[in-house]
Structure formats: structure tokens, C-alpha cells
Amino acid sequence: MQGHLIFSFLQEGNGKVSRVIRMGTRKSQLARIQTDSVAGRLRELYPDVHLEIVAMSTIGDKILDTALSKIGEKSLFTKELENALERNEVDIVVHSLKDLPTSLPPGFTIGAILQRENPHDAVVLHPKNAGLTLDSLPERSVIGTSSLRRAAQLKKRFPQLEFENIRGNLNTRLKKLDEKDDYAAIILAAAGLKRMGWESRISQILGPEDCMYAVGQGALAVEVRAQDKDILEMVSVLHHPDTVLQCISERAFLRQLEGGCSVPVAVHTEVKGSMLYLTGAVYSLDGADCLKDTMQTVVEIDNKVSESAQECVHVGVTANSVSSSALEAAEKLGMDLANALLNKGAKDILTTARKLNDAR
Question: Which GO annotations describe the biological process of this protein (predicted)?
Fold first, then answer.
């Protein structure tokens, strides 16, 4: 990792020189929309900065015939983007936070977590099933999902339905649903549908009693080189404190469990006043075995922020603008909840799920 920052400048027609910041993104339509939304925020805050968007394909975008949980690569949607960041080809990268592993490669950090969109999952029905719900669909209806977490929870909650893998970006999955008769419905993140302007396709939002969400779901993250202090400072104004605290507790929970997309782990977090509540669960692949618990902690904002970026990195997130005691409490909450589940036997459930998934 290079220890210096390469500046790019642009001479404008009026003789004014602008700093150029290159933003890396995946090529999918949703990724571009998400990156454009972050770029829009940055342009409002820093009108003199010239932003260039660099789009690229990742492993996860290229391998479309295999379930994500089977590919066995932790950074499916992030590796190529991080390579570009390391080579100074881009200066910041916009991700869906749920795609970012809980441990980032050395030299990288999450410099901003933006306000979370609705983190829940949504049911999108085949047009012929309009007006129905997962409860009222005919028995043995096939539901498409690429997520072990969704399938495990929904198999337990809706045993009369069948669940099959479906891959591809949002556009591809909706096309597969609408143009074929293979699926009665598919399950997608509500946040992605909303950002794409497809809210009208949402038939049902799944609450935590039906399906808890993935770690970081619904939140956008801005990844930067850790030594680029000026860029880190620039993007840090995008941090949304409540979302930061929720996502740090969720990421700490997942990291302590040593979970990933090859095991069913789900969460639900809420900030109420000065309290942060975290519910976390692990499941067997068929949803029959489940360990679930809720814990809470006080995350009062004490206005004491860290002076040093090194002192304030929590599960890959640098948030010097957020109360350091609140950040520490959020991280400890995630670890404590994971340890409580591990003490009840979560390790066995996760190990079995991993082995069964690998054997498929």
C-alpha cells in the first residue's frame, strides 16, 4: 500500500483548478444509482470538487450460475473495487454495506455509513399472484431467493412453501420472475427496490417476526484508503450516527460468530433514545434449529470524539465524528450477544450449516 496520496486536478474553462475525486462502483444499475446518490451529497457539500465515476465488474457480477454461498469468496462484490483503490485508480468506493466483510484488507477503512434505507426484506409476487401474501399463496408455491438467511427463516415460518435459488442483479431477477413461471414470488431487499424506483412491486414487507435482515442491510458505505486523511475527513460528514451504531453492533456480532454469506445469520437493531437494541440469530439451513436473543446497551452521545483515526476503528469503520464511548458500547454489544449465542451452542449450528452448504 502506498503511503502517499496522488492528487488529480482539473483545469476548468474559467482557469479555476478543481480537485478530482474518482469514485469506484459496480456496473449494475442499482450500484450506479447508489453511487450517484453519494456523489450528489458530496457535490452539495463540496461544490469545488470534481467527481468522476469509474464502473467495473466484480467476481459476484460475473459468476451468475452459482449460489453466492457456494462460491466461497468473502469479498465477492468488493475485491476488484479494492484492488483499484489500492492502485490509486479510484479514491473512494461506494458499496452496499452488507457486501463488505467484517474484516477489511490492511490499509482500507469505511469512512462513512449513510442513513439507512428500510433494512427489511420484501416479497415481490409474480403478476398472476397479485394481491396474495406468503401466507395465502397456494401450497408448494416456489419462492426464489439467493440468500441462505432468508431461506432458513422463511422455511420455518412458511413450511408449506418451497424455496429455490435465484441469482442475478435486481433487473435480472425481476425478469426471471415476470417472464417465466418458475417462481410464485421472489424475496429481495426493500432498500434496493426503493432506490430503483420499483416500490410499486413490493407486495409485502417482512417484519422481524417473519424474517430478520442481513448485517448492514439497507445502508451504504464509503470505503477509502486509511492513510488518505483528507478524503477520510471529507466523507466523514456523510456518517449517520444512529446507523453507524446499529451497523457496528451488527458487524461485531457477525465477526465474533465468524459468520459470512455461507451461513444463515440474521439481525434486527433499533435505537430508542439513548438505548441500542440488538437482536441476533443463527439458523440451521432448514430453519429447524435456531438460537436467538436480544441485548441492549446505553449509547449516550458524550461528544467525546477520537483525536486519532487509529483509536477509532471499529469492525472496519472509522467514525471520528461519532462519540467514542457510544462506538465502543455498540461494538461490545455485538460481541456480547454473539458470545451469549456461542455459549448456547451457536458454533455447532453454524459449523453444520457450513458443511451442509459445502456438500450441496
Answer: protoporphyrinogen IX biosynthetic process
DSSP state of 213: B
Q: Which helix (H) or strand (E) holds 224?
A: strand 220-225
pTM score, whole prediction: 0.88
- Cβ(253)–Cβ(320) under 8 Å? no
Residue of 113, 108, 107, 120 lying closest to 95 (CA atoms): 113
Three cell numbers written together for 162: 418451497
Pairwise CA distance, residues 314 & 38, whole Å? 22
pLDDT at residue 307, rounded to an integer? 53
Which residues have C-beta within 8 Å of that of residue 172, sequence separation ≥ 6? 64
DSSP letter for each residue of 50-107: EEEEEEE--HHHH--SS-HHHH--TTTTTHHHHHHHHTTS-SEEEEEGGGS-SSPPTT
Residue 2, pLDDT score: 34
Task: Single out the catalytic residue among 48, 91, 99, 178.
Answer: 99
Q: Is 242 designated active site?
A: no
